[in-house]
Amino acid sequence: MPPLRARIFALLDPASQGLAASRIRRLEVLLILIGIASVSAGTVDAVAPAARAAAAVITGIVAVAFFAEYLLRLWVAPEMPHPHAATERRSRLRWMLSPEGVIDLFAVIPAVAAVSGGVRLGAESASVFVLLWVLKLATHAPGVKMIARVFHNERSPLAATAAVFAIVLFSAATITHWLEGERQPEAFGSIPSALWWAMVTLTTTGYGDVVPQTALGRVIGGVVMLCGIAVLALLAGILATGFAEELRRREFVRIWDLVARVPFFSEVGAIAISDIVGRLRSRSYPAGATVIQEGETGDSMFFIVTGEVQVRLGPRMKALRDGDFFGEMALLDRKPRSADVVTVTPCTVLVLNVADFYQLAGQQPALVAAIETEAKRRRAEDRAAGCS
Ligand code: CMP
């Protein structure tokens, strides 16, 4: 059994997949939400004093829990895998300076402030805790890292859009300053003050607190509004394609990883594998699930990554395990499914649909020939047993 520190690290590591680790993550999110709710309740005047006092106690408990969690994470930090051997002190320092470490430190500030008497928990001043704790949610949301990655990947088109935005913003502010400066010296008397109108108009917010009064000023206003719509559309397009690309890339890596575990694909070269990976989807089934029903039309075949299934051929049963495939006969023979296939244990499978199967047959004939040979053997076996 691994030492206690390693076991606690495995429970607290955001990358851990286990049930206990995911329960702890959920518990932490719940704690953050309870903390935010109790601090928020403390700021509502209509809440009864007794309820406010209870909220303050809950806020205190949450603050102490975050403090304990911080100390625990600091203790287990040396367990973090790192390419270079580092001393325990250095590993802890590295974790403290990491984004997660800094955010966790912020979440600890309320408890430290309360203990040192700087802040009275439950008071109006505690509302600042919401800001500190809400940051902690970012370390638990799985998509936050992906958003950061998309912004990083798309930094040059985003910078180009920001440049266009700045050009239009400053040009609009300068021109309206010339046109409107004399009539409305308060709003357009200087370029910095005209920037407020330009920003509100360019972002299509349009508060309406400052409005150009000259005819030319209004024409400029219209042009700035149109530019604003164009810039926002450009930003939305860049980010949407960035997200789609990133999701596709992640899915590719995940499927690649699964394909590598199926020995059937091991003899195929890297280029062919990348062609196959793009056509496969992963699916998980619990134990006892019917994956294929006899007599159904077959629209896909399956490769088992992990788990065991049972092929039910009347009274005869055949077990298939990691690395085996099934569901190929209906695709090859263009006939209904010849048997029921039911999972015995939880299974992860890779699914190849019929259209991709035939395309693959054209591009990877050796692979499909190997599937065909096995199907022939199975058919002969079933015929001999009088099953089909
Ligand atoms: P299909 O007919 O599409 O659906 C049922 C699947 O069970 C079939 O494809 C095969 O993949 C599988 N199967 C049928 N007979 C056997 C066998 N004798 N051994 C292993 N698998 C089989």
Overall geometric form: extended
Helix content: 55-70%
User: Which sequence of SSEs, written as H and E, runs from N to C?
Assistant: HHHHHHHHHHHHEEEEEEHEEHH
Separate helix tally: 15
Small ligands present: adenosine-3',5'-cyclic-monophosphate
Poorly predicted residue ranges: none
* Order of neighbouring strands in the sheet with most strands: 1-8-3-6
Calculate Rg over CA atoms: 31 Å
- Number of extended strands: 8
| Beta-strand share of residues | 5-15%
Q: Class by helix and strand content? A: alpha+beta
Q: What composes the largest sheet?
A: 4 strands, antiparallel
- Span of the ends, CA to CA: 51 Å
| Mean residue pLDDT | 90
Give structural notes.
This protein is of the alpha+beta class and 388 residues long. Helices cover 63% and strands 10% of the residues. The strands form 2 sheets. A 4-stranded antiparallel beta sheet has the order 1-8-3-6. Strand 4 and strand 5 form a beta hairpin. It is extended and about 100 Å long. It binds adenosine-3',5'-cyclic-monophosphate. Adenosine-3',5'-cyclic-monophosphate binds next to strand 4, helix 13 and helix 15.
Summarize the structure.
The chain is α+β, with helices and mostly antiparallel strands and 388 residues long.
